[in-house]
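Example S7 (structure tokens).
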């Protein structure tokens, strides 16, 4: 933790010197609640963003820390999915083949999430569609992956 704090401090200092805005995504393969370690609270001028499968964290972050809920069709995550959909937080969904931008999934409009992780954080109430990448992943039957056919076209949703 001391090393992480030093490195964040040094990067914030460098950004201040160069006129840049410091941003951090500390979880890439983890789901650590960094607020429990006071990291975002300590570095108020930096922006933090992450993905999480813990819906209870979505509305409980400091102003400089945004979270996107990471969707899965697995049964064990359905209570978390339902809880996440009660918030305005963006929900990341991985689609096989292509992202059906403009369609709806879980009652929310799908936007292209492959543009920018930071842009994605600001897409409140939207599905952040991410295209499945990698040859091995494309063969996967994981319930983390959604088929584009599971979505609803925009016209059908508007008529309902």
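Recovered sequence:
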């Amino acid at each position: 933790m001391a090393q992480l704090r030093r490195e964040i401090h040094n990067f914030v200092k460098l950004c201040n010197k160069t006129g840049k805005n410091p941003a951090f995504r500390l979880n890439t393969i983890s789901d650590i609640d960094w607020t429990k370690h006071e990291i975002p609270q300590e570095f108020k001028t930096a922006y933090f963003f992450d993905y999480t499968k813990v819906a209870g964290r979505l509305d409980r972050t400091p102003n400089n820390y945004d979270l996107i809920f990471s969707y899965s069709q697995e049964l064990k995550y359905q209570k978390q999915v339902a809880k996440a959909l009660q918030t305005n937080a963006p929900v990341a969904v991985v689609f096989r083949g292509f992202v059906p931008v403009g369609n709806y999934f879980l009652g929310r409009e799908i936007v292209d999430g492959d543009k920018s992780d930071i842009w994605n954080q600001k897409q409140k109430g939207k599905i952040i569609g991410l295209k499945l990448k990698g040859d091995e992943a494309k063969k996967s039957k994981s319930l983390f992956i959604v088929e584009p056919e599971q979505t609803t076209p925009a016209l059908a949703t508007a008529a309902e």
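Notes on this example. The radius of gyration is 17 Å.
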